[in-house]
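Duplicate of #3305? Posting structure anyway:
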C-alpha cells in the first residue's frame, strides 16, 4: 500500500507541475494561444482531482471504486486552436517555447510513471486507472511534441542570435 500511495503522490506532483506550466503560459499569452494552454491546464487539474480521489480512498485503506476507475476522459486529438497563426505566436515567444518544451518533458515523464504504476499493481481497477492516465498523457505528449516541432521554424525566425 505504501508503494501505491507513493506512486499516486508522485502523480499528484506531476499533475500540479503541469497545471502550473500551462496556466502560466496562458497568462503570458492571449486569444487562441491562451485558450489552448488554459484548456490543457484544466485537463491537468482534472487529472489531479482524479488522483486526489484515489489517494484519499487508498490512504483510508479502501480500494477505489470501480466506477471511479471506469471514468474516461474523451481524447479528441489535435486541438482546432492549433493553426499556423498559433504556431507562429508560440514560436515567436521564448516563454511559450519554453512552456511547450517543459510540457513535453512533463508529459513523457507522466506516461512513464503511469505505465510503470499500472504494471506494478495487481488491482484491476487501479491498472485501468493508471493505463487511462498514461493514454491521456501520451496524447498530450504527441500533441505538444508536434507543436514544438512545427513552431521551431518561427522560433528561429524570431531569434537574432546576438549576445545578451
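Output from current build:
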Amino acid at each position: 500500500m505504501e508503494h501505491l500511495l507513493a506512486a499516486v503522490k508522485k502523480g499528484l506532483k506531476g499533475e500540479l507541475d503541469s497545471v502550473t506550466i500551462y496556466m502560466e503560459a496562458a497568462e503570458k499569452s492571449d486569444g487562441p494561444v491562451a485558450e489552448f494552454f488554459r484548456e490543457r491546464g484544466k485537463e491537468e487539474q482534472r487529472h489531479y482531482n482524479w488522483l486526489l480521489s484515489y489517494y484519499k480512498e487508498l490512504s483510508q485503506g479502501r480500494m477505489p471504486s470501480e466506477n471511479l476507475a471506469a471514468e474516461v476522459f474523451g481524447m479528441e486529438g489535435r486541438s482546432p486552436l492549433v493553426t499556423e497563426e498559433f504556431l507562429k505566436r508560440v514560436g515567436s515567444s521564448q516563454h511559450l517555447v519554453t512552456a511547450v518544451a517543459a510540457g513535453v518533458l512533463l508529459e513523457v515523464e507522466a506516461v512513464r510513471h503511469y505505465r510503470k504504476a499500472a504494471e506494478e499493481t495487481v488491482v484491476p481497477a487501479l491498472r485501468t486507472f493508471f493505463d487511462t492516465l498514461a493514454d491521456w498523457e501520451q496524447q498530450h505528449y504527441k500533441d505538444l511534441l508536434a507543436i514544438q516541432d512545427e513552431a521551431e521554424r518561427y522560433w528561429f525566425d524570431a531569434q537574432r542570435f546576438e549576445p545578451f
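Confirmed duplicate; merging threads. The mean pLDDT is 86. The helical segments are 2-27, 31-59, 66-70, 84-91, 94-120, 124-158.
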